[in-house]
Design a protein that fits this description.
The protein has 264 residues and is of the alpha/beta class. Helix content is 38%, strand content 14%. It contains 9 helices and 9 strands. Strands 1, 2, 3, 6 and 9 form a 5-stranded parallel beta sheet that branches. Strands 4-5 form a two-stranded parallel ribbon. A two-stranded parallel sheet has the order 7-8. The radius of gyration is 17 Å and the shape is globular.
């Protein structure tokens, strides 16, 4: 099965509600004595992220990963470039954010979505390459074949270009599995269906208990939640402030990935 955020609905609830009695990943040491890593990721390149996310991140001293869609950010490219100079990672979220992927081969997806987006990012952002990637709409397959064939087709498009790829599903990442699963990094959208801080913090506590890497996903961050996927400013602040007292290392996806793969 090709996983999407909808297929996670039942599974993630069980994951984060389970007993935290599992032992931490044997022998893995996070920086500064932390017991887990957390990456804050923001998808699509909404104006609300510039207005409501970036200032709070800067105030709290957190560095995040912004997975940007070119057509969403072009009107404010200068502002996004400025954000990237403050230590935040810029990841690729394609040129136009396609969700209908059945007509794409690996070659067509590269030509129409990956290559032009990479050229744009090369022009506007000076960050290290290869970049990380996030699957638009959480869909992990291209074309019309079997699920296995569709996943393989997508990997053909991604693997020559990207360091790693983030999904929207699954429990916190075991550092022992990260290199093998580099194009399917687990992540969680804690406010996609409900505007509440508790699911995010419980997911992070699970990572702490197990010594794992939690990747949180956010989209629009607005004054008041209007639709699925939105996070209110108040709840977003509660989540980030709730992280501050926990024994975690908070860093962008690329930085955590490179630390893990260099340390394992």
């Amino acid at each position: 099965m090709v996983l999407t955020r909808r297929s996670l609905a039942a599974g993630v609830s069980a994951t984060i509600a389970c007993s935290f009695a599992d032992s931490a990943s044997a022998g893995f040491r996070w920086p500064g004595g932390a017991r887990a890593a957390v990456s804050l990721t923001y998808d699509d390149g909404y104006d609300s992220q510039l207005a409501n996310v970036a200032p709070l991140l800067d105030d709290l001293g957190y560095k995040a990963t912004f997975f940007l869609t070119v057509e969403n950010i072009d009107a404010r490219a200068t502002d996004w470039t400025a954000l990237s100079t403050r230590g935040h990672e810029i990841g690729n979220h394609t040129l136009t954010h396609p969700c209908m992927l059945k007509d794409f081969s690996a070659g067509r997806f590269l030509r129409e979505q990956i290559v032009p987006a990479e050229r744009y990012f090369d022009t506007h952002f000076a960050g290290a390459k290869p970049r990380s990637y996030a699957y638009p709409c959480g869909y992990e397959g291209l074309g019309r074949g079997t699920n296995v064939a569709r996943v393989h087709e997508y990997l053909e498009a991604l693997s020559p270009t990207f360091l790693a790829a983030r999904t929207v599903n699954g429990p916190p990442n075991d550092p022992r599995d990260v290199l093998r699963q580099r194009y399917f990094l687990n992540a969680y959208e804690p406010t996609y269906d409900i505007d509440n801080r508790e699911l995010a913090l419980r997911y992070v506590r699970k990572a702490i208990n197990d010594g794992h890497w939690a990747i949180l996903v956010f989209h629009e961050v607005v004054e008041h939640r209007r639709a699925a996927g939105d996070t209110s400013k108040a709840v977003h602040r509660e989540i980030l402030e709730g992280l501050s007292g926990l024994p975690i290392w908070c860093a962008p996806v690329r930085k955590v990935f490179n630390y893990i793969t260099g340390a394992t």
